[in-house]
Amino acid sequence: MEQKGQNGQEQILVGIDVGSTTTKVAVMEVATGKVLFSDYTRHHSDQLQSVSRAVKLVKETLAGRSFLTAMTGSGAKHLSEELRIPYVQEVVANSIALKAMYGEIGTAIELGGQDAKIIFFQRDKRTGELQVADMRMNGSCAGGTGAFVDEIASLLKTPVEEFDALAAQGTTVYDISGRCGVYAKTDIQPLL
Fold first, then answer.
1. pLDDT tens, position by position, 84-132
2. How many Cβ atoms from other residues are within 10 Å of residue 169's Cβ?
3. Has residue 45 been placed in a domain?
């Protein structure tokens, strides 16, 4: 079934995720699920400017076509209220997308800039529908999150994009604290 907007064109959805360190935008056709445009940029603590930039890019990309927009992310709540754009809490947004994209999913882990989230899924015993059974979010430490990974990349003087190849060359696994980013960094520095 084709979904048409008010002007008879394909309905287009725009999602803007304003996280603790980055702003992401995705533009998608509803009927096909085709991603028409996406952008990922660090906002350097200027979330408003990054959202303005994202909206400008979307308008340029869609050149006069109409679209529906929603926002998510740790930095989006206040901005969505100011801009009168619907807001969806980030773990809820992730769970909706994951259920739509993957028919069989048990657990999903998302590492944000300053937090980590885990979502557990299960099938409803009565209906068989995939549903969220539990959601958790770290609350006391940013260890293992994007900000921590960035910090270690800086310490190693290695771009994050090269971590995977660097890890593949490893021959030894060292014990470091897995509970706290500060302790982990304290364990890593003498090993260097």
1. 999 999 999 999 999 988 888 999 998 888 888 899 999 999 999 999 9
2. 6
3. yes
**Measured distance CA(43)–CA(53) in Å, rounded:** 10
Give the CA count within 13 Å in the CB-facing half-sphere of 50: 23
Residue type, 43: H
Could you tell me if 40 and 24 are in contact, meaning their C-beta atoms sit under 8 angstroms apart? yes
Listed in sequence order, the residues at least 6 apart from 97 whose beta carbon sits closer than 8 Å to its beta carbon are: none
CA distance 165 to 161: 9
CB-based contact 42:53 (threshold 8 Å):
no
Residues 6+ apart with CB under 8 A from 141: 179, 180, 181, 182
Within 31-180, residue ranges assigned H as helices are 47-62, 76-83, 90-101, 146-156, 163-168
Residue 64 pLDDT level (bands cut at 50, 70, 90) = confident
Both 29 and 78 in one domain: the answer is: yes
Same domain, yes or no: 60 and 20: yes
Domain with 75, as residue range(s), is: 12-88
Co-location of 163 and 127 in the same domain: no
For the chain, the domain total comes to 3
